[in-house]
Give the backbone structure.
Amino acid sequence: MGAAPVAGQGVSGGSDASEWVADLLKERTWPAHQAAERHGFQRAMLTGEAGLPPYLVQMQQMLLVHRDLEQALHARPTERIGAVYKQYHDRSGLIEADLATLGSAPAAEALPSTRRMLETMSACRISGPDRLLGVLYVLEGSTNGGRYIARAIEKSYGLESRRGTSWLDPHGEEQRPRWKQFRRDISAQEWGQAELEELGVAADATFRFAAELMDDLATAR
């Protein structure tokens, strides 16, 4: 992998690997995480105030991002990606099915926030594919609250369970162990200090995208 590991941080790949990289990313991205989570339009969507159309547009935009990320990760261009990424992390198929359930086409033009996110991911693919694990950290981490968001969306818009919301809660009862496994797997790799910074930059960009997408949805409403 070429990078000298950060000393004393559980960098070997054994069964006792800690979750230190995930903890570092959580601390690093906390301000951006909070900004996305507490966005006013996010609350309007959850309560039903925003109406269903913005939720459909959100799914269309997320589909563009997930498709692009999955295409990059499927190739497993590095050892780290091969060790961390699992097929069950894919969600584009679920988003497509949810859109079809709600009578919406999957095709959509990228909004400004989505274009910027796709450009960020393209730069990662060219300059350092492992940075994409920072993107995956945020998207996969979103499943922690996804179940509760799904239930709120269903209640607000009168949807049946997992009918139009399966992408928010892709793992069901397996969510917690799979998230735990992701945290362990990403932390079991050897990372240099500069590489950890790059992971953090990619993760921050993903949270920033989530907030900016809310801005775009609010403006387009």
About this structure: The radius of gyration is 17 Å.
